[in-house]
């Protein structure tokens, strides 16, 4: 399946929308988009996985690397996950303890802007 990655700005937050499958072959496109999105000071990033149908370990590495880079620069990142199998993947791997998982873009935007309490 094809991967579509788009980056847009909502005031001070970069929103990365990901549609399709993220695997070994398509992960570099996500990595490049996250790098562009994290260029703000501080970097505030929302990753919208609502239209993502598949993530492999390469995609998870890209996301965790972006999380580390964003937080090293005193930024914040949140993930929108509405697909049960994607949310389950975050849960099984324990990444739901690192990434704030949100059901809507408004919730994710509020979280990265600091208007919502961080998850443990």
Characterise the protein shown here.
The protein has 120 residues and is α/β, with parallel strands linked by helices. It has a single domain, classed as STAS domain (Transcription Regulator spoIIAA), CATH 3.30.750.24. The protein has four helices and five strands, in the order ββαβαβαβα. The chain has helices at 27-37, 57-72, 84-93, 105-112, and strands at 3-10, 13-22, 44-55, 76-80, 101-102. A five-stranded mixed beta sheet has the order 1-2-3-4-5, with helices on both faces. Strand 3 (44-55), helix 2 (57-72) and strand 4 (76-80) form a beta-alpha-beta unit. Mean pLDDT is 93; it is low at 116-120.
From the spread of the alpha carbons, the general shape counts as globular
How far is the first residue's CA from the last residue's CA? 34 Å
The largest sheet has its strands arranged as 1-2-3-4-5
Q: Total number of helical segments?
A: 4
């Amino acid at each position: 399946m094809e991967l579509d990655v788009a980056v847009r700005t909502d005031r001070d937050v970069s929103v990365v929308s990901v549609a399709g499958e993220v695997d070994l072959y398509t992960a570099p496109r996500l990595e490049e988009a996250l790098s562009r999105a994290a260029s703000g000071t501080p970097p505030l990033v929302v990753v919208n996985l609502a239209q993502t149908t598949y993530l492999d370990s390469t995609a998870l590495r890209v996301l965790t690397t972006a999380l580390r880079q964003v937080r090293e620069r005193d930024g914040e990142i949140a993930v929108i996950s509405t697909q049960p199998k994607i949310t389950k993947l975050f849960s099984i791997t324990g990444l739901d303890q690192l990434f704030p998982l949100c059901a809507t873009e408004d919730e994710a935007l509020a979280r990265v802007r600091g208007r919502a309490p961080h998850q443990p």
